[in-house]
């Protein structure tokens, strides 16, 4: 199942689609009062009879109702906007909530003053238009300032914190109460000129600011923030602009049709913003529901993959505490999930000898990440390592590691693949190759044994024929030397034919190389001269029989690679030296060389250039695997007609002091 992301509003609301339709509808609503006025329709609300007898101003009921409605919608929008800011820290909602609160609070105070609930205005005829003009200018300036601030770089909005917001709300509330209370006690100037073209010229600057907001500032804000709320803010400026126009050019006295139309459009502006917030909440809820469903589906898929993975998957903290453990890990290491969660992976699974290496791998993952952010991650491996089963036995695994989270508190995930069957197969292949090697050298080994055996028998015959004790003792010593040579050859064969893989230990490379030279001496001497330079080197961590097998294979290949020419023209050189704390063994022949296109193929399993029946194609492949298991490398250099050099490089270690 493919889950499609929720489309952004930029894709769902285009100027030629729904947005254009909403603009057209708002514009039509703004024009309808003008049509009604032209047709002589009375826009006053019906005044209840009980209120009619106590009302001191005709039309005050309509005015108060529209003011209160607009004020309540504006304060409700400010509350919703502030609530959204508290959750998402949105710059748009934080700035606009201040403007909405001012506009709504002023409208409610004006409505209550007209009804005499808070203040008793000395000059109500001028109080209503004067306070409209003053508060409308402040409202326009706030809208202009909010728009400019929202178009400013985001880092400038850092001061907009909840405490700051509540402080501004309180300040604006006190300012509204003070301003409107002061206006109710003064003799106010007349701001309406019924006979002039501009009936209320003092309201013209607010009209210009609303026009600037509607056609310049808020379209840009909508392009930046792209939400139903930003679109509603843009749309809300149209009724504000129309309301100012009705008052400036159409309202000749209080509570006439143009006057009521202006207050109705002012309430419409607040309703548009409130509707935009509601739609934004609906959209956010829909997105959250969609996101939760997507997360749930992905969790199911991830859990299915986690539970059904063939590899062991273990997640643990920087302190090594295991947090996740899949069924494959139970099969591989024996521990059940309930028994292992919360315990330390290093002490339970990593042998003491491998813990420094394991820890180094974890530290490298953390330091190698390009970013310390919570979403960054790094991968390491694969590499081979020995871990522990619940019963204490060793398990050969191929390990990959992943790190994620913050650099100071990363989360690690371990992926382990069982190599036991592969190791057994490699061991059998190694043994088969050894047997092939021993079979190939059978004639040479027989000759090596035959010479000291003949020497031994001859000296035993001399012992029988000797006439005095001194002659018998000399023949006996000579016979013992011959037997010792035979014993050494048998020991070499036993070393080479050993089947079980031994743990890595310190090996003197010169000893392993000398065994290989003894085993191949007869093969080499039949076709070439042997030249060797064996320097004293540091020991290496290896398995001596397998390292000896590598040298035997390389020496045998060198002997087979020589050209069919007189023995004195063929040459094999063996060098043992130490360079930059690495022990290097070079075996060079002056044969025809290896073509460049075959130099990497020779290390592939079952690849051979020998005639059928004369090679298994496993020798060099196994040699490279063995050397790399000792953390070394096996490379080849060859030029046509200039010979070939195989180079084994192994890390040296400090010799034991024991």
UniProtKB/TrEMBL annotation:
Keywords: ATP-binding, Kinase, Membrane, Nucleotide-binding, Phosphoprotein, Transferase, Transmembrane, Transmembrane helix, Two-component regulatory system. The keyword Chaperone does not apply. Its EC number is 2.7.13.3. The chain crosses the membrane at residues 20-41, 61-80, 92-114, 134-152, 164-184, 204-221, 233-255, 261-282. Pfam families: HATPase_c, HisKA, PAS. This is histidine kinase. It catalyses: ATP + protein L-histidine = ADP + protein N-phospho-L-histidine. Residues 298-369 form the PAS domain. InterPro entries: HATPase_C_sf (IPR036890), HATPase_dom (IPR003594), His_kinase_dom (IPR005467), HisK_dim/P_dom (IPR003661), HisK_dim/P_sf (IPR036097), PAS (IPR000014), PAS-like_dom_sf (IPR035965), PAS_fold (IPR013767). SUPFAM superfamilies: ATPase domain of HSP90 chaperone/DNA topoisomerase II/histidine kinase, Homodimeric domain of signal transducing histidine kinase, PYP-like sensor domain (PAS domain). Residues 444-654 form the Histidine kinase domain.
């Amino acid at each position: 199942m493919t889950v499609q992301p929720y489309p952004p509003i930029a894709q769902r609301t285009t100027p030629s689609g729904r947005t254009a339709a909403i603009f057209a509808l708002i514009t039509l609503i703004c024009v309808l009062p003008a049509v009604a006025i032209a047709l002589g329709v009375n826009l006053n609300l019906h005044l209840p009879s009980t209120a009619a007898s106590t009302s001191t101003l005709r039309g005050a009921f309509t005015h108060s109702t529209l003011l209160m409605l607009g004020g309540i919608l504006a304060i409700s929008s400010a509350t919703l906007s502030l609530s959204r800011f508290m959750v998402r820290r949105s710059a748009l909602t934080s700035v606009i909530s201040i403007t909405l609160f001012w506009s709504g609070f002023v409208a409610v105070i004006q409505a209550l003053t007209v009804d005499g609930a808070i203040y008793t205005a000395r000059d109500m005829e001028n109080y209503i238009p004067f306070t409209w003009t003053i508060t409308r200018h402040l409202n326009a300036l706030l809208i202009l300032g909010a728009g400019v601030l929202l178009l400013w770089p985001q880092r400038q909005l850092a001061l907009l914190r909840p405490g700051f917001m509540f402080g501004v709300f309180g300040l604006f509330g006190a300012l509204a109460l003070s301003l409107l209370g002061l206006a109710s006690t003064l003799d106010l100037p007349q701001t309406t000129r019924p006979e002039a073209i501009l009936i209320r010229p003092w309201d013209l600057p607010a009209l210009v600011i609303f026009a600037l907001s509607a056609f310049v500032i808020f379209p840009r804000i909508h392009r930046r923030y792209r939400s139903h709320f930003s679109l509603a803010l843009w749309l809300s400026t149209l009724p504000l602009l129309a309301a100012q126009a009705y008052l400036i050019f159409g309202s000749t006295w209080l509570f006439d049709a143009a006057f009521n139309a202006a207050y109705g459009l002012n309430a419409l502006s607040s309703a548009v913003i409130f509707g935009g917030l509601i739609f934004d909440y609906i959209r956010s809820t829909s997105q959250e529901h969609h996101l939760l469903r997507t997360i749930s589906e992905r969790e199911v898929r991830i859990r299915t993959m986690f539970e059904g993975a063939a590899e062991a998957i273990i997640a643990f903290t920087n302190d090594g505490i295991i947090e996740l453990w899949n069924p494959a890990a139970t099969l591989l290491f024996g521990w059940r999930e309930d028994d292992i969660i919360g315990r330390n992976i290093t002490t339970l699974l990593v042998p003491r000898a491998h813990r420094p290496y394991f820890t180094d791998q974890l530290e490298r993952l953390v330091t190698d990440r390009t970013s310390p952010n919570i979403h960054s991650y790094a991968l390491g491996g694969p590499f081979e390592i020995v871990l522990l089963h619940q019963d204490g036995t060793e398990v050969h695994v191929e390990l990959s590691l992943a790190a994620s989270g913050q650099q100071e508190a990363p989360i690690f995930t371990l992926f382990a693949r069982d190599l036991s069957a592969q190791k057994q197969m490699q061991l059998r292949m190694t043994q088969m190759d050894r047997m092939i090697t021993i079979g190939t050298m059978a004639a040479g080994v027989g000759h090596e044994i035959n010479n000291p055996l003949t020497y031994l028998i001859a000296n035993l015959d001399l012992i029988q024929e000797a006439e005095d004790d001194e002659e018998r003792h000399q023949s006996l010593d000579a016979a013992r030397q011959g037997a010792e040579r035979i014993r050494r050859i048998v020991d070499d064969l036993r070393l080479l034919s050993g089947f079980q893989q031994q743990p890595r230990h310190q090996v003197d490379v010169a000893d392993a190389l000398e065994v290989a030279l003894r085993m191949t001496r007869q093969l080499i001497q039949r076709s070439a001269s042997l030249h060797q330079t064996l320097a004293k080197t540091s020991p290496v961590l290896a398995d001596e029989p397998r390292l000896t097998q590598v040298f035997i294979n390389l020496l045998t290949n060198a002997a087979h690679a020589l050209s069919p020419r007189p023995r004195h023209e063929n040459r094999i050189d063996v060098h043992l030296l130490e360079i930059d704390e690495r022990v290097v063994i070079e075996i060079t022949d002056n044969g025809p060389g290896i073509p460049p296109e075959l130099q990497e193929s020779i290390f592939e399993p079952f690849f051979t250039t020998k005639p059928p029946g004369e090679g298994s194609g496993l020798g060099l492949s196994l040699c490279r695997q063995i050397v790399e298991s000792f953390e070394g490398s096996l490379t080849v250099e060859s030029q046509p007609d200039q010979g070939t050099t195989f180079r084994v490089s192994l890390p040296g270690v400090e010799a034991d002091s024991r």
